[in-house]
Amino acid sequence: MHGRLPRTHQDLLFALRTAGTIDELSSHERYRQATYDTVAAVFEEHGRFFNEVWAPTNALGDTEGLKWSEEGVTTPESFKDAWAKYVEAGWQGINLDPDYGGMGFPNVVYGLSAETTIAANAALSMLPGLTTGAVELLQHWGPRSRRSGTSPG
Question: What is the pTM of this model?
Fold first, then answer.
């Protein structure tokens, strides 16, 4: 993708308020921080991050491509940098339990934020999708000794 992503956060907020029932969700203790205004600010920052950090890697991924060898798969260098910044910014944990380093937002917030993630770079977006599933599995079913206080990097 060349240029900037379309500003979709207003569409995401509309979906969240009308179909995602954010007002009802934020009335529950578990999601008390997920007010409409807070989620709006999260979506705004999320959009900025993905415009500036991930979107530029999309075309590079197409031109450089992945490389396979006996040692494994190598991604474009820009993917590694974007992934490191993603983890550092805490986006991996948007819907994960705060007791384990996540932000604790409802899954509907994570699902809608994935729209921006995928639009910025669909290939790179496979990493957080797979990682979220692994983290949720560990949070719910893993031995306590494997449940660290941080989201994965």
Answer: 0.80
